[in-house]
Amino acid sequence: MTEKELRALLDSMTIEEKLGELWQPQQLVYDKDGVLTGAADTNTYTPEEIYRSGSTLNLFGIDRIRKVQEEHIKNNPHHIPLLFMGDICRGFSTIFPITLGYSCSFDLELIKKAYRVVAKESAASGFHITFYPAMDLVRDPRWGRVVESAGEDPYLASKICAAMVEGLQGDGLDKPDTIGACVKHFAGYGGAEGGRDYNTVELSERTLRQYYLPGYKGGIDAGASMVMTSYNAIGGVPSNCNKHLVRDILRGEWGWDGVVITDLWATSSMTSHRIGDDINDEKYQAEVSLEAGIDIEMGSCQFRWLADSIKEGKIDEKLVDEACYRVLKLKNDLGLFENPFREMSEENAEKLLKCDEHLDIAKKLSTESCVLLKNEDNALPLTEKSGKIAFIGPFVDLSTTSGGAWVLTNDDESGSLHNVVNKHYPGNDFIFAKGCSGLGREQVRESKRFSQYSDEQNREKDISEAVNIAKKVDTVVLALGECPGMFGEAKSRANIRIPDVQLELYRRVRAVNENVIVLVFNGRPLDLSEINDAKAILDVWYLGTMMSEAVTNLIFGKESPSGKLTMSFPSFVGQIPVYYNKLPTDHRKEPYWSEYIDDSSSNPLYPFGHGLNYTTLKYGKTVFSKERFTPDETITASVEITNTGDRDCCEIVQLYIRDFRATVSRPIKELKGFKRVDIKAGETVTVQFEINEEMLRYFNIDMEYVSDAGRFDAIIATSSAFEEDEMLPFYLDK
Ligand code: BGC
């Protein structure tokens, strides 16, 4: 449709029809064949209301989607097609690693490719929009949704968010193999106090802008078509009625004109924030949401009261027109008026879902996501020197390699480590044993949630059997970690250690065999201090469809690990939040210092940017092309890196900068650039980064985004674990 036709359509709609477009009922209003039943049957909504709605979510099945769309178009007063949205976060059929995992690849091109795959498989299956990327910055690994994040760094998050949006939206929504991206949860959702989901967030305006917003903005600048507001309140203001966030920053300062949707039931959940004259004041909640800039209400249906608000003169109809126009425009951008089914067809799905090309991309991203945290005596990779090997632990036979977090479509049965190791190394004499269950009585609460992972009855028998095996073999590979579903929405943990029963297994095995290699399966950074005397630790997260293939290739050395942590792993829970880009303090010497008195370091066990590979590298000193520069010039920082080992590798080289002369306190180090660089055994490479004035900007004392003249320090390093005095100065002249 032309813009004129779209405007004419809007003008021809009644207020009820316009408000209908702003409502997203859940898929529950349709039955399994796509016929209106469910909530409609319970008289919650009339069929007329549902046929006026503009979209639905998480409705799966090509036949069902086709039927719902056909009926909707037939019965909608203006025959406006529905938008099908859903949480297709890590893939439709080919499931990719958790986001925290693949963020460790620092591989923007590959992440973009992966999200092209997500888009193609989703579009072929009938979806128009995915509620992803979730770019909530996190400094607290107790928060379960850390699994969906790109970790603790705003610069990296903004780049990853952009890559995901570019992958999803491809060459434009008018191309039928794309889907729209919805950046969420706007804003600051990852700052939940105590790491408890949905909890209050307290962020200063500067911290919000400097750290928490850039991730989302990366997606906005890349053209994301939608934004979802978050459940939390910042400084007491729930995002759903936060005009400053949505109208001032998102639409005003960032100049973005896409569609804003609430999170599920968020309008009604304003009741729990006690927003309203009365705790059930639906109309008031709808009014403040619309005024704050919300376009679509997911789940609850409170916007219908806005017809009365307009009559009463409380709301300007213009606001409804603007929101409705944005929804119609999104439908038009997707080409739905001409082709309401776009790329959806059984043939396309058959051709694309889990095709070889997609599986290859998933395998590559899974391989690059793993992080080798330690590797004493080159315990990894496993070779003949490893002698006789036993694979022990509750995850050796795990076939659900997705971990469950936001895999709604296809919880993969793609093959356990046991099966895949046997497939690739037939005729070997490896020993496999369960060792223990995922959880013991200590972690299964009265609610019995997760009790399926506990097997208290066989605890002693399983552990003793494992100890006997460990005594007889030369090397033990222990597969330990968090059970599927222990991370994700509403899955906060106070104690982020490996569950007790597994720690018992570890200690007893370690007592009889010093060659223990641990594979950690996890959805969040864990406190690994109690297993840190293992010879090697490889963090394998939850990687999805190609997990076991990728892990097998890595541990047997067919591939080399290259991932680097994007979030610090704490030494103990009490030091959380622990993150690398902290502000300096002038209290640095004992006794008036900012350390703990009980000998507990304030440093993380494994810092941001850390990750080993199977070779050794030597970094030279960072060199600048000149010492001073002006805003219209650049400085080149370069470093020589030598691969001093006997294996080729891919190294993620990182540039950190520190601002020495600012109007507010600035972090002791900030990531400002990174590159994946292949370095052959024995080879020396020179790696360069261009530094420009824009990279030095920050929110100053007057909240202006500017740079100051003066001294900056920089270093090109292998991780964030360098000493501040290793950085070298350069100067910006103005
Ligand atoms: C989550 C969102 C998700 C929505 C729809 C909510 O509970 O917070 O991230 O997109 O449900 O499934």
Can you give a write-up of this model?
The protein folds into three domains: about 85-350, Alpha-Beta Barrel (TIM Barrel), CATH 3.20.20.300; about 365-560, Glycoside hydrolase family 3 C-terminal domain (Rossmann fold); about 615-730, Sandwich (Immunoglobulin-like), CATH 2.60.40.10. It is about 30% helix and about 15% strand. The protein contains 19 helices and 27 strands. The strands form seven sheets. The protein has a six-stranded parallel sheet with strand order 2-3-4-5-6-9. Strand 7 and strand 8 form a beta hairpin. Helix 8 runs parallel beside helix 9 and helix 17 (about 460-470) runs parallel beside helix 18. The site of beta-D-glucopyranose (BGC) has 8 residues, from loops.
Short key terms for the protein model shown above:
734 residues; TIM Barrel; Rossmann fold; Immunoglobulin-like; 3 domains; six-stranded parallel β-sheet; six-stranded mixed β-sheet; 19 helices; binds beta-D-glucopyranose
